[in-house]
Amino acid sequence: MRRRLPATVPAALAVLAGLSACAGIEPDFRKPGAQRLTGPEVSTLLGGHTLSIVNPRGKSYINRFSKDGSIVISGAKGNEYGRWTVAGDRYCLTLDVDPRQQCMEIYRLPDGRYQMVNADGTLRNTFQVD
Q1: pLDDT at 13 over 70
Q2: Number of domains, the chain
Q3: What is the model's pTM?
Q4: Residue 80 in domain
């Protein structure tokens, strides 16, 4: 025989779920201690390096940045190719499959990870340099 929960239990669980969701709303790049990188810092961070990236939906990618400005993005769907540059203090990407340039700010987090932020202020991804 199945026992029914009191009517207050589902409501209490919903409140707890809402509170835990609220705790994670503010992205790390907006928290104290996060530092926005300058253009020269972005160039040094990316040029000739490989990044392990996770987007907000939990998908993982590997980005390989050549010093000549080419980039290879490897993920579940295979490889994408493009060009990267630094404009002002932002990293800009143009993919071969989509000629629209996308520019992002990069923030260093206190724990040593980094986050890319879209032009509209939304989190694009979190990464570490390999």
Answers
A1: no
A2: 1
A3: 0.78
A4: yes
